[in-house]
Amino acid sequence: MALEKIHKENDIKNLSPEELNSLPDEIRRFLIEKISVTGGHLASNLGVVELTMALHLVLNLPDDKLIWDVGHQSYTHKLLTGRRDGFDGLRKYGGMSGFPKRKESSCDAFDTGHSSTSVSAGLGYVAARELSGENYSVVSVIGDGSMTGGMAYEALNNASHLKSNFIIVLNDNNMSISENVGGMSRYLSDLRTAQAYTGLKRGVEDTLKKMPGGGERLIQQMKRTKSGIKQLLVPGMFFEDMGITYLGPVDGHDVRRLVKVLRDAKRVNHAVLVHVITKKGKGYPPAEENPARFHGTGPFHIETGETAGESEKDSYTDVFSKVLADIGRKDEKVAAVTAAMADGTGLSRFARMFPKRFFDVGIAEEHAMTFAAGLAAGGMKPVFAVYSSFLQRAFDQTIHDVCLSNLPVVIAVDRAGLVGSDGETHQGVFDLSYLSMIPNMTVMSPKNRWEMADMLRFAVDFPYPVALRYPRGTAYEGLKQFRAPIEYGKSEVLFEEEDIAVIFVGHMSELAEKVRMELKDTGYACSLVNARFVKPLDTEMLEKLAEDHSLFVTIEENVLAGGFGERVLDYVNRAKLNVRVRSVGISDDYVEHGNVGLLRREVGLDKDTIVKQAVTDFLMIKGG
To answer: Sheet of 549-559: strands edge to edge?
Structure first.
């Protein structure tokens, strides 16, 4: 098998033509088999097999720099750089990342995980190359979905001024995660339909050459006018008009054609964009038919494509989806906004029911936030559903456009806390810190599925900015007996005793319950408090608890710096309360990929670690 002959980078160049022809099928079979066991990004990787092969045939890695936008389509790249054995541990703790990682291989030129970044990073490499007097190629691969992100256009504007080679490969599969939307999507669609342009231009040139006398002169004149036929036949010529040479569209599954156009691109002495047409999910019918479903998948049965061991219980996202649709049925002012994540955030249901009040703005979180602010200023009640990791991109807009004007925007912060296998770029462990520092922002987090529903109803009717934070995965069904009405800024005391008070944020409820029971079994009196609101802080509750408790243990799945525990400690110190605070959260570090339960043990968010810390602190207080 051809794949077995690849042990390191550039080995692909030693394969025979016959082996190169068989390699795409071998790679696809390998990926399907491995990802069916480990889970991962399948459809995007199946779509770029031939493109990746062509890039590796043309480039000399690691000297040349290949930068993948987002990076979830880099599995074939990892195979071709000798990491085949790592796929058994793909996205597992201590194993191979599902994204490019510089610490994993010198062939991974840039760590990526969020969209629309590769052109900017590539430009930085080009500048470094010129400043250091080196001579290597820089290629940035960016998807058409990522072209809805404003950062890509900032970089393209900058790239138009280059006087040295820089190759941008536009991987166009008409998909981001969900189907693409907006003007750029329509523009690229027009370009796809203009594929006949190349053949027509060649035919015109052949005809002109046969003209006696002036044929060659006319051809040269056409070229001097920057390919006039292309200007007529390809609408807008957006990239050419910016000063970026456009090559394509090219069949992204034709290795020979791709190699030829990439070699042509290397000869251009400025920025050049190669437009490649690919099919997301190619080679695996279930992924071709439903690429969004196989964008990021858990383990699945190869024969049917059905997910293995999928929980039938509602996730927090499911609860959000159902409740928001019910709210939207009763209140015509409610609108929903997503940044290309309608399925992932649960907004597809709302979109089907109320299409006029649903807005998918594409991969453009910054725009989505300010757009939601505009909706709110215009009298609507917008709910912007977004993953915690991607909300980071709209931080400035949250401060400046939503909270400064105190507008009633609901930010539904999905995938908060540790999300597991996608690793550092996707862990939602910073939002409590950066959201709670913003004036006028209210931050809430539910303890279980019923509180999730209650908090969403509260948030939609709240007349100011509010963030509702909840995790990935099955909604907790414990503590059902506690369902006090949501009261602004007030926590919920679930069990009231003395000595130790365990105060938890949101989905840390199940862990906090276990900590309390272990402490009680060990002989300590222990209260259990559901914070509900991270901001505003329930200072009355803290003062009351301080009267008969010696130790507060705060539990949050967020970085400690700027988090809930730090806010509690700050108030305790300022109010001079006679109580010690043990803050449990994530230390000042990025958390790698792996199973969430394992990751919690690694960072100290597990029952045994917390109980041990609490007992040690309590004994120290009592002089034991």
So the answer is: 492-495, 526-530, 499-504, 549-559, 580-586
pLDDT: which is higher, 254 or 213: 254
Within 10 angstroms of residue 199's Cβ, the number of other Cβ atoms is 9
How many other CB atoms are there within 10 angstroms of residue 190's CB atom? 11
- Rounded to whole angstroms, the Cα distance separating 127 from 301 reads 47
Question: Which of 116, 130, 128 minimizes the C-alpha distance to 168?
Answer: 116
Q: Could you give phi then psi for residue 2, rounded to 5 degrees?
A: -65, -40
| CA dihedral sign, ordered 314, 317, 319, 324 | negative
Enumerate the active-site residues. 280, 365, 393
Give the mean pLDDT of the chain: 90
3-state SS class at 237:
coil
pLDDT > 60? residue 544: yes
| HEC secondary structure over 102-125 | CCCCCCCCCCCCCCCCHHHHHHHH
Amino acid 208: pLDDT: 57
Q: Is the per-residue pLDDT at 195 higher than 80?
A: no
Q: How many CB atoms lie within 10 A of CB 579?
A: 19
State the average pLDDT over residues 500-527.
96
Residue 12 has pLDDT above 80, yes or no: yes
Element (H, E) at 51: helix 49-58
Nearest one of 172, 153, 306, 184 to 249, comparing CA atoms: 172
Is the pTM here over 0.70, yes or no? yes
Task: Tell me the mean pLDDT in the region 117-142.
Answer: 95
| Mean pLDDT, residues 25-35 | 93
Whether residue 36 contacts residue 87, with contact meaning beta carbons closer than 8 Å, is answered with: no
Residue matched to tokens 């390809």: 234
What is the sign, positive or negative, of the torsion defined by CA atoms of 531, 532, 535, 537? Answer: negative
* DSSP code at position 399: I
Helix 118-132, helix 150-159: angle, nearest 10: 30
Sequence letter at residue 178? S
